[in-house]
Amino acid sequence: MEYIQSKKYDFEDVNGMTLKQLNQHYKLYEGYVNKVNEIWTILNENKLYENPNPTLSDTRSLMLGQSYAVDGVKLHELYFSNLGGGNNMPYGDILNEIQKKYGSYEFFKERFKNIGLSMRGWVVLSIDPLDNNLHIYGLDAHDVGTVLMSYPLLVMDVYEHAYMIDFGIDRKKYIDVFIENINWDIVNERLSNYKKTNRDFPRKYRCISDKINIKKTYGWANYCKD
Ligand SMILES: [Fe+2]
């Protein structure tokens, strides 16, 4: 059964990376889409597997495969769509948010690069409804380091497969080229979508916490009067 389909991306407007590199990467993404369909087909048979076990079991394999493949699809779609074709300098609301959190775009860029050189899988600039602020999260794999409910704005793949054909092991050079290719139009669009749908979330979240009696600890009482 085909539950999801691969999305199409135009790589012609990516500068400094070859179509060979990008098309090979895209093939990996298609593999994750196929695996999601395969796993969901199995799970939707609603079969109960025998001998559930947290060391080795059929159910465990399916669960680990599911989160790895689903996150693999989502992260690659975010990555391909924020790569190329746009304004390569931040502007507008995302620039305001970056300056507010990191002081300057230059500092943000250095921290983003630094995290890119420190992780094995991904760098994700997110806005987190926990405090309604920007955070850069580092992932060692699609499903290792992902943060629940944070809203991804800018995603960079740092797995070797993302750059090895064009840059060998020179990840630093790849990251520089990636940064030059960021589509800030898309990043601003994601930020705008977050603000439209999540604006009240931090307050509501804290009010729920208040109801379970931790307001005195964190001083959130004023959020919950209405
Ligand atoms: Fe990748």
TrEMBL record:
<dbReference type="InterPro" id="IPR036314">
    <property type="entry name" value="SOD_C_sf"/>
</dbReference>
<dbReference type="InterPro" id="IPR001189">
    <property type="entry name" value="Mn/Fe_SOD"/>
</dbReference>
<protein>
    <recommendedName>
        <fullName>superoxide dismutase</fullName>
        <ecNumber>1.15.1.1</ecNumber>
    </recommendedName>
</protein>
<feature type="domain" description="Manganese/iron superoxide dismutase C-terminal">
    <location>
        <begin position="92"/>
        <end position="190"/>
    </location>
</feature>
<dbReference type="Pfam" id="PF02777">
    <property type="entry name" value="Sod_Fe_C"/>
</dbReference>
<keyword id="KW-0560">Oxidoreductase</keyword>
<dbReference type="InterPro" id="IPR019832">
    <property type="entry name" value="Mn/Fe_SOD_C"/>
</dbReference>
<keyword id="KW-0479">Metal-binding</keyword>
<comment type="similarity">
    <text>Belongs to the iron/manganese superoxide dismutase family.</text>
</comment>
<dbReference type="InterPro" id="IPR036324">
    <property type="entry name" value="Mn/Fe_SOD_N_sf"/>
</dbReference>
<dbReference type="InterPro" id="IPR050265">
    <property type="entry name" value="Fe/Mn_Superoxide_Dismutase"/>
</dbReference>
